Amino acid sequence: MSTMWVYPGQGAQKVNMLHDLPEHPLVRHYLERASVALQRDVLKLDQPEALRSTEAVQLCLYLAGYISSSILLDEQVQPEYVAGLSIGAWTAAAVAGVYSFEQGLQLVSLRGRLMQEAYPSGYGMTAIMNADKSQVTRWVAEVYQQIGKVYLANINAANQIVISGSEQAMQQVVDIAKNQGATAKKLNVTVPSHCELLDEQAQQLVQAMENIALHPAKFKYLSGTSARLIHATEQIKHDLIFNMCRTIDWESTVQAAWERGVKLQIEVLPGSVLTGLARKVFKEGSVLFFQGTRLDSLICAMHQESA
Predict the structure, then answer these.
(1) Alpha-carbon dihedral 298, 302, 305, 307, rounded to 10 degrees
(2) Is the full-model pTM beyond 0.90?
(3) What is the C-alpha to C-alpha distance for residues 270 and 160, in angstroms, rounded to an integer?
(4) Residue 31: which of 15, 44, 48 has the closest Cα?
(5) Given a cut of 90, is residue 305 above it in pLDDT?
(6) pLDDT at 1
(7) How far apart are CA 57 and CA 292, in angstroms?
(8) Of 38, 44, 204, 275, whose Cβ has the fewest other Cβ atoms within 10 Å?
(9) Which reaction equation describes what this protein catalyses (predicted)?
(10) Does the pLDDT value for residue 42 go beyond 90?
(11) Strand ranges (DSSP E) for 187-285?
């Protein structure tokens, strides 16, 4: 039996998420390093005005995930697997040592800026609930044929599918979905992630990563896009770069972890959404999230799982 640490994507952010990190020496250590690396005070990134920026949101998620993982590692516990949803995959790779903390910061900052500058307004993502993939795919295709600019983005669970695109096109899909008995929720994401609208931005990341030396992952890296275990550093790099413009299959990722023997999933800061999505799969295992669990309880659960 083994453990997987998972890293949430955009939508998990909240005001003061960096200010609310646990009282631990590593928190100050990494926040200071981040401020030096980015040449700005990162504690200003989690404020309401700043969080309107995709770059700030992604940096906050990266920092919260990396720092909470470092606190666990400092307690002499570690996962066998890591996996992240969208920007969370970049944190997972950093925690696994594929690149350094500072390199990750620079790449995440660039990724956020590219996405934000390409679509400053009028786009986003919407979750469709109580409908399956085939239904949502059909509704998206119907609207796409009429006005375009709407795509299937995330398969979060069997009955939770996320679409991405222009607000106008997404609203048309939502209208169809509601007429068919489904429900919808606009996500706190201001860019059209996980679709071809970000192909050009992904190619710019290819150039940015050309001269970065990558290292073999210390933990098994499970792709949130393909739900496959990836070993080669070049393949991990490819997975990271292009996850912004490819559909995320988180449902299959969680299922793949379970089938590989993972019986404990811990969601690092700041989210709990991935915990909820995993509960149906981990019926005989355990799913915990850092945000709502005492540190000693997390450590105890890790030790019990590895015993």
Answers:
(1) -130
(2) yes
(3) 21
(4) 44
(5) no
(6) 63
(7) 21
(8) 44
(9) holo-[ACP] + malonyl-CoA = malonyl-[ACP] + CoA
(10) yes
(11) 220-222, 229-230, 248-249, 262-267
